[in-house]
Amino acid sequence: MKPTTQQSRSRQCLNHLKSRPRLKISLLIAAIIPLSLNVSQGYLHPQSVDDNHTLTVVAVQNPTTVFQNDGFTHGFGYDLARSYAKSMDLKLNLVTVNDNNTALKWVKKGKAQFALTTAPINQIEQAQLIAVEGSCGAQSTLQKYGLNSNISWVFKSAEDPLAVTATGHLCQSKQTGEMQRLASFYDQNYVNQQDLNTVTHNLQQRLPIYKTSFKKSAQQLNLDWQFLAAIGYQESYLKPESVSPTGVRGVMMLTQNTAKAMGVQDRTNPAQSIQGGAKYFNLMLQEYQDIPYPDRNWYALVAYNMGPGAVNQIRTRLQKQGKDPDQWINLYQYLENNQRANARHQQAIQYVKRIRIYLEHIKTTEQLAQI
């Protein structure tokens, strides 16, 4: 296929960049790649992508790149990489390693197409690799939400077409607001350290009491018991005597109708409440089984909080607006845009963000992970 004028210009730019100082490459690419670049057309399809149409990305786990633990994989950097892979109709295979040196070696040896990293630029230069600025100049946005503004996508060379298409995708994500919304959802300042210390103290006191019930219910439904515990803590702080203004009760705060539908006879009985809550959350996961993870988790949580009817109404509105109703970033944007007019939307945002934070806190805090 004969290259278009835009394709030829992109390639000429890369040839020009080869003679430039390595530190400047990512910034120059960002300045010359048009935001309308359609990576899905395949004219810059990387030769390094394997025959299975899989994009392998290597990362060091941290709050900015990816959280990967017990089958959970999500995060600011991960979601941007996932969006990029989807734009080229590729399956994303993200592998985490222990340190930046190892991640960079993976790229150098061709074991990964690029590294998602917060490594210092001098470390990337010493490895003779090419860094594309992960925020496309939106460092202040990342800093606002407590994310590392030094995030980079690191490639083997400027000749790799991925170095071009990645920059185009990242800058397009910035322009459309996707980057800001992802940074907002993965906000590292949403719960401050003092409050997290209180969470740790409360869970150390209360979680051992209900651990058996959480594990039993999770095992029956093939769920993660710590995820259920995070939901329970957000609902009631794991207090069986909790009562909301609307009359929901107990650890998982079930309404009378939900409790009855889930076979719960006594909402104030913690074991029954946990079992009922687990059943209902599993039902919400099934409701959105066509939505891939991690988005399915967030949809199910919003539905647990607002009811699936409310979520499906939003999805219908998104579809009418020409937006994909099965992408979390679109549902999240709708909730954000309407939170001032609808308190339920504001509550749903708080609900999902806090449960994500509690889940990560439980799994990565030694005192809690050992409970």
UniProtKB/TrEMBL annotation:
Every Transglycosylase SLT domain range: 214-323
MF terms (GO), sorted A to Z: peptidoglycan lytic transglycosylase activity
GO biological process, one term: peptidoglycan metabolic process
Stored SUPFAM superfamilies: Lysozyme-like (SSF53955), Periplasmic binding protein-like II (SSF53850)
Gene3D superfamilies: 1.10.530.10, Periplasmic binding protein-like II (3.40.190.10)
Cellular-component GO terms for this entry: membrane
Pfam families: SLT
InterPro entries in UniProt: Lysozyme-like_dom_sf, Transglyc_AS, Transglycosylase_SLT_dom_1
Family: Belongs to the transglycosylase Slt family.
Name of the protein in its database record: ABC transporter substrate-binding protein
Organism: Acinetobacter populi
High-level lineage: Bacteria, Pseudomonadati, Pseudomonadota, Gammaproteobacteria, Moraxellales
